[in-house]
């Protein structure tokens, strides 16, 4: 039996090599790298008063409320990554507005991202609030509270309540619907 020309014999192993590398790259791209998120005890916000053009720094412990003008800012969680990882600082925050009649109106509930402050911003005619950083990483593992026991960091006398919203897993964004054109 006649042998194939020399250049055909050398190509096969190369093609198999590239197919193996391509498969490894495809597997690496489909599985995101899991960076460890760090839970923090304090969320740091920047707040702008548009009337006076004054920017203030708000350091708010989790589950406590800070006032800025007519706004009340209450962070629930604040996550960062290790310094060796790409930065990703996020917080789940609730912002209420004190109205002239004394009632509170919720104007924002959701996630804020320090690396893109305009993505989920508080929309208010007089004040702007955005996340800048988190502080005081937790080093002690959090214990699950017993039913009926107050949560650490919560208001005194408050019973443990199941959370209505759970944070998304690290690196996962909420799904968006595609609108037909």
Any overview of this molecule?
The chain is mainly beta and 181 residues long. The protein has a domain at 51-136. The protein has one helix at residues 6-30; strands at residues 37-49, 54-61, 66-68, 71-81, 90-98, 104-113, 127-137. Strands 1, 2, 3, 4, 5, 6 and 7 form a 7-stranded antiparallel sheet that branches. A hairpin with a 2-residue loop joins strand 3 and strand 4 (71-81). The longest helix has 25 residues, at 6-30. The radius of gyration is 25 Å and the shape is globular.
Q: What overall geometry do the principal axes of the alpha carbons give?
A: globular
Q: What is the total tally of β strands? A: 7
Strand content: 35-45%
Q: What's the average pLDDT?
A: 74
The H/E string reads HEEEEEEE
Percentage of residues in helical conformation: 10-25%
- Which radius of gyration do the C-alpha atoms yield? 25 Å
**How many alpha or pi helices?**
1
- The assigned structural class equals mainly beta
**Which regions have little confidence, pLDDT < 50, spanning 5+ residues?**
140-144, 152-165
End-to-end Cα distance: 60 Å
Largest sheet: 7 strands, antiparallel
Task: List key phrases describing it.
single chain; 181 residues; mainly beta; 7-stranded antiparallel β-sheet; 1 helix; 7 strands; globular
Quick synopsis:
Helices cover 14% and strands 36% of the residues. The protein contains 1 helix and 7 strands.
